[in-house]
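Example record used in the benchmark description.
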Amino acid sequence: MTASENASWFDEGSGYLVRPYAITGGRTRPNGSDFALITLVMASPSSRALDRRMEQPELSAILDLCQERPLAVVEIAAKLDLPASVVKVLCGDLLDKSMISIKAPSRESAAPSVELLERVIDGIRKL
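Model output (structure tokens):
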């Protein structure tokens, strides 16, 4: 998309004129993986060699952002000024095409138990 074509979709006062449901094709959840806000996204090395002229400029923008270092879904959403739910759907599309890799946050099972935390609090109170 050229700069003049992109300019026709942007208004200084109201931002992008394309609604989020149009960007995602009406989908509200990504296919396959579920993305947390802190899921890290990294562009796959093979995505650099692919033709970046995609149907959606948002997909190219995500790949460009994630080339140098992994970014969290929420960071991508902030940099692209898109709702996080839209970024999750788009990342799901890129993951289906093997254009990104993800690192999901650790599970809650890795967190300390409530019993351990209560013992630590009791120990602190005794000090």
